[in-house]
Amino acid sequence: DMEHLRFPLSAGQPKTDMDKKGERCVTVDCILNTDVLTQAKAFRPLKAFLVELCINWVAQKTKMQLDEKFKLPKMRYKGDVIERQNIRVDRKPLVSEVRDVPDEPAFPLIISKLDKEKAAERA
Fold first, then answer.
1. In 3-state terms, what secondary structure has residue 122?
2. Rg (Cα) of the chain, in Å, rounded?
3. Is this model's pTM higher than 0.85 or not?
4. 7-29 pLDDT, tens per residue?
């Protein structure tokens, strides 16, 4: 069995800005579900994984070649205006109860004459 993890993620449009040296740079807002961010603060490998996930998503979305080396700034946000983004949150349970299934179907099954003969032989 393979487990699947889902990280709700949204990447905004590229915007030009200035870095701390005063040189032009491109910024892209990436947002994640707050529950995921809380877990990432407590577990550094998850945080590193999420940063790489965002870098790869932005590269794929913008078709830009991004440097895999990163440094997280101490600032909470880079830029003047925060672009509004939404992440859909599925509140569906991961496990759902399966009700009892009757032994006999509630609808007639169409079987061939050969299948009937095989069934009669087994009985």
1. helix
2. 26
3. no
4. 788 888 898 888 889 999 888 88
